[in-house]
## 1
Amino acid sequence: MDGNGRWATSKGLKRTEGHREGAKAIDRLMDDAIEFGLKNISLYAFSTENWKRPVLEVKAIFDLLIEFINERLDNIHSKGICIQHSGSRKRIPSSALKSIDAAVAKTKKNKILTINFCLNYGSKDEILHAFNEAMKERKINRKDLSAPMKEREFEKYLYTYPLPAVDLLIRTAGEQRISNFLLWQIAYSEIFFTNTLWPDFNRDSLVDALKSYEHRVRKFGGL
Ligand code: IPE
Ligand code: MG
């Protein structure tokens, strides 16, 4: 969800206002996704690298997230949306963890659409975490620690588990890079780059991305 800051700056507003407007884009996306029958959406909300930002911006992002979840939880639940969190819990403020955990617990049986908030998420961190957890589990169960790690064993420990591999990755705001997002899960994803800034991302933007996806021929390395 890139481009919140640029959206705000271009309008003479504070960057925080861009994040606030970005939250509205998530509202639209949730409704459109349900209508179009999408099953899983992962939103890159805060990366392990975003801690480099000024403390006030970091605080504003977490405050906004708490507000976002608390204000909408009943509505999200009534729509049948399941909230998931992917990322390290380590540096997330306890107030934010409280909101996330409550949302995850309340919506865990919902089946219409999963919204996976990637928060304090970094893919390298995820892969190392998964490997370490897998080894820990082997030790606990007295399994052979030197046995080769298979995909099926490893994937269970990814933050995103049990979500499937990504079909379509959308990167907004004109940047053409992955920025440590779901590196394992996008091995064979289709990628859609758009110049649209995240707060401007609307139903038409989603339709453009889906139409592009519709024309991709996915071969997964085969013929
Ligand atoms: C993305 O928007 C939102 C977060 C990382 C939380 P940015 O804040 O990166 O917006 P730009 O890139 O400065 O425009
Ligand atoms: Mg950015």
## 2
Amino acid sequence: MIVLDKDTRVFTLHTQNTTYQMKADENRVLLHTYYGPRVGGGDLSYLIQYADRGFCPNPSELGRRRDYSLDALPQEYSTCGVGDFRLPSAQVEQPDGSRLLDLRYESCEARPGKYALEGLPAFHGAEGETLSVLLRDPSSSLEVELLYGVFEAYDLITRTVRIRNRGNRPVRLNQAASLCLDLPPAEMDLITFDGAHVRERWMNRAPLRPGVQGVGSTRGTSSHQHNPFVMLCGRDAGEDHGLCYGAALLYSGGFQAAAERSQFGDIRLVLGMQPQGFSWVLGPGECFTAPEAAMICSPNGFTSMTHQFHRAVRERLLRDPYAGKQRPVLVNNWEATYFDFDAEKLLEIAREAAPLGIRLLVMDDGWFGQRNDDFGGLGDWTVNRRKLPGGLEALAPRLRELGMQFGLWVEPEMVSEDSALYREHPEWAMRAPGRPGARGRSQLVLDLSRREVRDHLFNALRSVLDSAEIAYVKWDMNRSFTDIWSAALPPERQGETAHRYILGLYELLERLRQAYPELLVEGCSGGGGRFDLGMLYYTPQIWCSDNSDAIDRLRIQYGTSFCYPPVCVGAHVSASPNEQNGRVTPLETRGVVAMSGTFGYEMDLCRCTPEEREIIRRQTEDFHRYGELIRQGDYYRLSEPFQDPGYTAWAHVAPDRREALVSLVTGSTWAAQPFVTLKLKGLDPAAKYRINGGKTLWPGDALMYAGYPIPPMRGDYQSLQLHLEA
Ligand code: GLA
């Protein structure tokens, strides 16, 4: 609900459990007054205190008044160069060369329905509401429109900004953050999700110290190294208690998430596109729209924030027909064969897979052009007839006869120098004149900011997709950007290239979606290098990590779970010893871990023993039985894998709490271990549950408050699943 009091100029956004408020004060400065647990309303600006603070400048119109400074007041969208020395939200170069931006309130409007963003991913839903607040720089022609979307039931507030040049000379934008959140002084922690290729989204929590701290990506992608989802929380906050804020950017390019603890202890979070290297020429009359950011505040700890993000992503970000819906259990040949396969090998795998309950065969890298290793072939999206003599049109029907759908891997954004496409269009690769350009995985990035490149890719993909019945595409992207430069832009606009690339990528993905609405697209960037809400709008699942080791995955999936629901998390069972780290784990455990995602296999099923096949058959059966619960249930983290209690546990609980699936995996073993009593969460305290179909009726309250005794398990990396039914 949006409440506008135009007399006091207090604007309040209420969600089910939270309230967010701002006020345009007597100086027309838009102050942030409150974001936290829901309160009745009224003017909360009484919370703001004024004092004469040394070296904090005062606006000129206040004459001799010294207790008013932009530097000491909570701003709704911070300015630069005119009195606030904390993190700016926008940076500009005015026509006179100054880097100054002052923003004062002009007007506001609330309207039913959530704003939409042309060409950018966004939350959507008929029940959403929009608040638009217009600010203007009194000394220049720049206008900033702050947009807020409110989804009450999800406690979700989305934000973005539109910056307009109302003058007749161009202005340069050097930063346009999507979100600025000023919180009052408090002892708070910043939580980020960081790592590397094959080690994505490890959770890091650290107290905010004075000054700026944060994460970001300058790689042209959201990156393996840092994720555009961050949290701020009270020092004492945990899963079930304490105030916490989650903020995510719906953007798949470089980003910056920075938190600053100021000289007076107050906290500012700024989230948006990466300013480093960004610069956008805003011509007269033009408007720049920043990507959307999403915020959820939970007064009761991380779990409820996670539940709200998961529900909002499933129901208000992902789009039909895959929003929160069933996805086929798949087998992918990558770790089974790498580049060394042909149609017969794939059919062999499919023949093994079909009777085990697997419904989709994904042919990974190597099926096209002269792609026999990762030094060549990218860009040539025509079938390699040596490997697939009959083409896709012969393979797909044979798979269908086996009861399997067909999917394939593509990496459209890239080109190998050893390819027909590169020989024909070397200028389509992103690289500045006179520079050799760094390689990543021996490949170059195609300049998706250019229409002709996108048109070519769309047509190439269309020929592939029209040639056979293809149900699924894995859209990969395997390097970081360097040498960012576009032949299509003049020198003064080169700072636009990286963002125009992402806009081009989104346009291409949207075109594909319009042309093939039933096609399931799985995002991927060397695993989870572009795991963000922006990509999820176009690709409803993303391969979570190239690390398929079940034990490493516990931490990766734990970190991923804070914002992203299991239905989006690509997770497969792979061979043991594991390809990435050589670890040996039981097949059962690998199944338990992968089942907490989209589920599938990434191994040569032809090499499985009859016992292993039987385990796999049972796993797919279990996944089909529990799939709905995993997709739609509330996710509970029951342990902290970074604290290493000897096990990792989590649960999916049905919204009506009548059913739950609890999973637990042990670490490396040691003798004389303490017994584990696992305290469950989210159950109905008054209900009685059967566990794994047993006779005993277990009271929900006892399972939660006293716990369930985990039977001692021998050996490393053991697992169990408890299926509870009330
Ligand atoms: C990336 C993906 C893998 C696989 C390979 C193929 O690394 O993440 O899953 O598809 O590319 O080259």
